[in-house]
Specification:
four-stranded antiparallel sheet, about 240 residues, 11 strands, Jelly Rolls, about 20% strand, Arc Repressor Mutant, subunit A, 8 helices, alpha+beta
């Protein structure tokens, strides 16, 4: 009979599977991926537990193994401005490898989660021997920069109605003609408000407006888009309230 895998073997296999799904490491040969895993530590987090705070010394960057991680900064009035929410196999804080000795933002678990810490010092040594990894890092950081630029443009140039309509349309499934689309919010309404750069009260008022306009219904985390043709009108400012 084949020998049973130990808990450590199973944990290492799961860690390698997550690294393989991460765009940073997707193209690496198996031997190189195993080498990367030697730079890693798996951390388990409770809901609401911080991974790091802004200004903490940078130990390395992270890959989400399970759960959901919010990266945010505090506004001058004390609100959380969510920069991005990361899901399994996505990486974050890569810039600390080359540009920062401390973390520039806060990271917290939105749900019970596990993250893979890729430790800074050994990974830097690995890049010296595997320079193609640096190209992957640049690609990942470019995607993050693109997201930040879009976030800044949204906050400065678009009303909350346009931002919310865009968010709903991007995340809803494409329904058949003349049918509704239903999906569950992947985050709480408080987190969604933070992602959109508004208070929870402003988000609630905007959702209420969309309900009054018979564009959506909301039942807890479940959202039904009643009129996927009507929401795009908010993207270009042509929407008007229905009688």
């Amino acid at each position: 009979m084949p020998s049973r895998l130990s808990p450590d073997d199973l944990r290492n296999a799961a860690l390698l599977a997550t690294l393989r799904r991460c765009p940073l490491f997707a193209d690496l040969p198996s031997a190189d991926l195993t080498t990367v895993s030697g730079c890693c530590t798996l951390k388990t987090l409770d809901k609401g537990q911080h991974i790091f705070h802004e200004g903490d010394p940078a130990e390395g960057f992270y890959v989400v193994h399970a759960g959901r991680i919010s990266i945010y900064r505090l506004t001058p009035d004390g609100r959380e401005q969510i920069i991005c929410v990361f899901n399994p196999a996505e990486s974050f804080a890569e810039a600390t490898l080359v540009t920062a000795e401390t973390y520039p933002a806060n990271a917290t678990a939105l749900v019970p989660s596990q993250v893979i810490l890729v430790r800074k010092a050994p990974f830097r040594q690995l890049i010296i021997h595997k320079p193609e990894l640096a190209l992957h890092m640049l690609g990942s950081m470019s995607l993050h920069l693109k997201h930040l630029v879009q976030l800044l443009q949204d906050l400065k140039g678009r009303q909350i109605e346009a931002r919310l309509a865009d968010w709903l349309l991007q995340r809803s499934p494409a329904p058949p003609p003349d049918q509704t689309a239903t999906f569950e919010l992947p985050v709480t309404k408080k987190v969604l408000a933070g992602q959109l750069g508004v208070t929870s009260e402003t988000l609630s008022r905007t959702l209420a407006r969309f309900r009054d306009d018979r564009l959506i219904t909301v039942d807890g985390p479940r959202v039904t888009l009643l009129d996927t043709a009507g929401l795009p009108a908010y993207l270009n400012g042509t929407a008007c309230r229905r009688a």
